[in-house]
Amino acid sequence: MEQDYSIVTELPGFRGSEEQLTRLYQRYRFARDFCKDKKVLEVACGGGMGLGYLAKVAKKVVGGDIDKDILKHPLERYEGKDKIKIEEFDAQNPPFEDKSFDVVILYEAIYYLPEPEKFVSEAHRVLRDDGVLLICTANKEWADFNPSPYSTKYFSAQELYSLLKRKFTKVKVLGAFPVSEGGIKNKIVSLIKRTAVTLHLIPKTMRGKEIFKRVFFGELLTLPPEIEDGEVEYSPPVAISSDHPSCQYKVLFFEARA
Questions:
Q1: Hey, what's the torsion of the CAs at 228, 232, 6, 189, to 10 degrees?
Q2: 3-class DSSP assignment, residue 250
């Protein structure tokens, strides 16, 4: 049965917490520093909310996803934009020539892939010799981690580092959104969330999670069709060790070079 990824994908018009919007912005603000005057491929681009942002500095941006319904959003948003191209393709079989991109991005999607090692190999193939692969993923070692429906495998920092090192000689691991231990409210929310995860009470869809977030985080923000500077603050990810568990961060970033 074909999966409907639209129910688990952040799309324009959905509502989320301020932290959710900040995470979304952080991903592309981090990537932007690698994209100036470069040819960029975002695999599993979803609603394409970062494509226009990256295209402001990149030479060319190609965004693709396996779900054609999800691609309706970026196709409509970026119609007629010469620097942005939208294509439907499988992350594990990108239809591009060898050494055709300077930057390859995969954000919050590697855990959906049946064969993540195949994606890593293909990313290496389509990257130029001085290219870079950027990956962002939820940290499964975070105590409040909640797996997404349709996911096949989540990686720890050590596991994904090891996978990337099979193809890339230089791999850097970074952490983002440090876990806050202080405050009675944080502790109560964390306890409730862990209980809900254990009992499988957290809604499976993005729409369903809006209710859960509204109760615990207050007023929600609408996710934009395209992110912009100035909407939320940016805190860059920080370098962390690949040799030890990284439970103190909610999000992991990886920068891999050949």
A1: 180
A2: strand
